[in-house]
Amino acid sequence: MNKNIKNKNKILTIITIIIAIFFTTASIFALTNYFSKQRKEKIQLMNNLPFFTIERTKGNNEDKILIPLPIPNFKPSKYQHLIEMEHKAVLNTNGIEIDGPLYLKITSSYDTKTTFENPTNFFNLSMKVNNNEYDESQRPLMALKEGNGTITIQIGIEQKEIIKETIDGKKPELDLIFDYELVDSKGNSFSGGNQTIKTSIVQTA
Question: Domain 51-202 - what CATH class?
Answer without folding.
Answer: mainly beta
